[in-house]
Amino acid sequence: MIDERSRKKLMVEHSRLLNAADVDGLLGLYADEVTFEDPVGADQRSGRDALRAHFEEFVRAGVRETLGDPVAGQDGKHVLAPASAVMDYLPKGPGFAERGWITAPDDPTGKRITWNYVLMLRTGKGGAITELKALWGRSDLAVTD
Amino acid sequence: MADEATLKHLALEYARRMNDGDVEAVLELFSDDIVFEDPVGAPPLIGKEALRGHIAWSIECQVHEEPGRPVVSMDGRSVAVPTTVTVYAPTKLTFQIVGIIELGDDDLVRHARAYWGITDTKVGDGPELSGVAHFMAVTQNLAKMVQAKGSPSPT
After folding, report:
1. Which residue does chain A place closest to B97, by CA atoms?
2. What are A92-108's pLDDT values in tens digits?
3. Using CB atoms, which residue from A74, A117, A136 is nearest to B117?
4. Measured between CB atoms, does A56 come within 8 Å of chain B?
5. Cβ A116–B71 below 8 Å, yes or no?
């Protein structure tokens, strides 16, 4: 019970820190050994340095995440939540377009990317996050004004 | 590999067939070697026969599923959908879950996971209990569901 609630609080705190552009704070929630997949099925990476670079890109894009209600796994490890986010087209947009995930706009000025996903965090010893997974596909992404 | 629209349709179709109460129509979506975890954290059900019992039991409990917006994985293998699941018998219980289903090469579901915790479960329509009282009420009512089935269950 307490464990489920603490994992849900962790998820909410993770979102708060991302929106506050606090990358050091975010990294503080993670274990020494981390893996992450964002999106699942395309980009599996590991290590805190890679994770820091990943969050810094989102922060540079002015990301705003809106989190739905988190649910807790009865495995004592996982917490998941539906989420949506919006960020500036730059810097990540051209990379998305190159991979065929979105159609590049003629003029990226003022464009934004919005997407829907399910965020999944796995925790380990002491409640630190050991894995982040975000499920989203091409049809969950849109380029907007 | 299924396209994204097919994956999303499948997640909604599962809910529709459950709500129709048609056990065989639900089972058609799954492969023979299905691994079904409901909830994740309990021993998984393995194989279609084990799943048939679970689905039939859920339907006996008058299950109703209200799926939210599905999202897919970039490799076209998985679809995740937040869902409100209500059972009306023997007691009304409401579960907030995130379901993740993974397809095999035959486009049938080969792995299904339902994530929900005791804190994602509500008993009846009354005011929300908290702490230990909530935990006791949920676990007692889950046990009642299992007794109603008359045989051991994963929930």
Report:
1. A71
2. 999 999 999 999 999 99
3. A74
4. no
5. yes
Which CATH number covers residue B65? 3.10.450.50
B145 in any annotated domain: yes
Whether residue B155 is contained in a domain is answered as no
The dihedrals phi and psi of B38, each to the nearest 5 degrees, come to -145, 100
Residues in chain A, total: 145
pTM, two decimals, is 0.94
pLDDT exceeds cutoff 90 at B152: no
Kindly report the CA angle at A17 between A11 and A23, in degrees rounded to 5?
120
Structural domain for B38, as ranges: 4-149
For chain B, say whether A117 makes contact (Cβ under 8 Å).
yes
The residue type found at B61 is: C
Q: Residue B125 has what pLDDT?
A: 87
The question of ipTM being above 0.90 is answered as: yes
Per the structure, how many domains does chain B have? Answer: 1
Using the Cβ of A83 and the Cβ atoms of chain B, whether some distance falls under 8 Å is answered with no
Q: Which amino acid is at B13?
A: E
